[in-house]
């Protein structure tokens, strides 16, 4: 069929108009998607607001992530150091990590470590993918570290003070047992996961005396050492456990491949009538 010149020009004009309209729609859609992503990523690092920020792994317990030490670092790397591009929409993975903030949800998956699924408060789903950044690793590794920190912080907050009826040595041992067993309660794959741990306290009487004489502690505060024997679940967990005094565990009763380190701690009988323990670090 041969079209007349006038009809052919009209047909071509219609096609061009439809293509322009289609490209405009795609451009607006992409802009809207990226604007939503940028806004959500900004919220992740906004410490000036009181909005809740929670992290959940594989549909399990949600942990508060607003107060983790590296919140700004993690959010900045997700927003500034990874270059995101919009990709074909797929359903949100069920076995992944979800960060909820400001009514939006950002989902990540270990099976697709550079992908991000964003669901905005109105239910709109956008999918993004970033290129691997060798300096920081994958998007998944970043958010999993964030989750591990949030979970471990929560586990430590669950460590309760000890009753006044205990001697300070008994209170210190019970507290140390609870404090360091938090590692065994961490989710498998965590940076803080130990498969076995044992805490042994030793009174630091000379240090207690010296610090009291200097007025640094009162009569209700006692210094002690903790030898922490542990078996890290992974090389990564071992890396995060390493300190200047970490080495192979020499206790014959410890599992094969265990490590040991020392920590300086104090325990104080507070005004509430309970013993409160504190880790000072590797030195006084």
Secondary-structure element order, N to C:
HEEHEEEEEHEHEHEHEEE
The coarse overall form would be elongated
- Roughly how many Å is the radius of gyration? 27 Å
> Please, how many helices?
6
Helical proportion, percent range: 25-40%
The profile of the biggest β sheet is:
7 strands, antiparallel
Subunit organisation of the chains: single chain
Structure description:
37% of the residues lie in helices and 29% in strands. The chain is of the alpha+beta class and 284 residues long. The strands form two sheets. The protein has a seven-stranded antiparallel beta sheet, with helices on one face. Strand 1 (53-57) and strand 2 form a beta hairpin. The longest helix is centred in the first third of the chain and has 41 residues, at 5-45.
Descriptive key words:
single chain; 284 residues; alpha+beta; seven-stranded antiparallel β-sheet; six-stranded antiparallel β-sheet; 6 helices; elongated
Quick rundown:
This protein is 37% helix and 29% strand. It has helices at 5-45, 71-81, 139-157, 168-185, 205-213, 235-241; strands at residues 53-57, 62-64, 84-86, 97-101, 104-109, 112-119, 125-130, 162-163, 194-203, 221-232, 247-248, 259-269, 274-281.
Write the SSE topology.
Blueprint: H1 5-45, E1 53-57, E2 62-64, H2 71-81, E3 84-86, E4 97-101, E5 104-109, E6 112-119, E7 125-130, H3 139-157, E8 162-163, H4 168-185, E9 194-203, H5 205-213, E10 221-232, H6 235-241, E11 247-248, E12 259-269, E13 274-281
């Amino acid at each position: 069929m041969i079209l007349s010149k006038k009809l052919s020009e009209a047909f071509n004009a219609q096609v061009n108009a439809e293509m322009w309209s289609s490209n405009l729609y795609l451009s607006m859609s992409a802009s809207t998607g990226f604007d939503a992503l940028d806004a959500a990523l900004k919220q992740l690092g906004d410490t000036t607001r009181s909005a809740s920020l929670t992290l959940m792994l594989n549909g399990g317990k949600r942990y508060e992530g607003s107060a983790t030490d590296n919140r700004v670092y993690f959010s900045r790397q997700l927003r500034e150091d990874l270059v995101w591009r919009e990709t074909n929409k797929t359903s949100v993975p069920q076995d992944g990590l979800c960060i909820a903030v400001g009514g939006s949800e950002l989902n990540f998956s270990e099976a697709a470590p550079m992908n991000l699924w964003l669901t905005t408060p109105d239910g709109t789903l956008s999918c993004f993918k970033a290129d691997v950044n060798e300096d920081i690793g994958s998007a998944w590794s970043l958010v999993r570290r964030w989750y591990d920190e949030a979970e471990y912080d929560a586990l430590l907050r669950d460590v309760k003070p000890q009753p006044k009826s205990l001697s300070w040595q008994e209170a210190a041992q019970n507290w140390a047992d609870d404090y360091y067993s938090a590692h065994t309660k961490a989710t498998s794959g965590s940076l803080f996961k130990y498969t076995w741990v044992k805490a042994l306290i030793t009174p630091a009487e000379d240090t207690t005396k010296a610090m009291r004489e200097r007025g640094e502690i009162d009569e209700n505060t006692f210094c002690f050492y903790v030898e922490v024997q542990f078996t890290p679940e992974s090389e990564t967990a071992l890396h995060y456990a390493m300190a200047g005094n970490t080495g192979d565990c020499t206790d014959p009763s410890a599992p094969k491949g265990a490590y040991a380190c020392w920590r300086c701690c104090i325990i104080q009988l507070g005004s509430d009538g309970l013993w409160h323990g504190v880790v000072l670090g590797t030195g006084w």
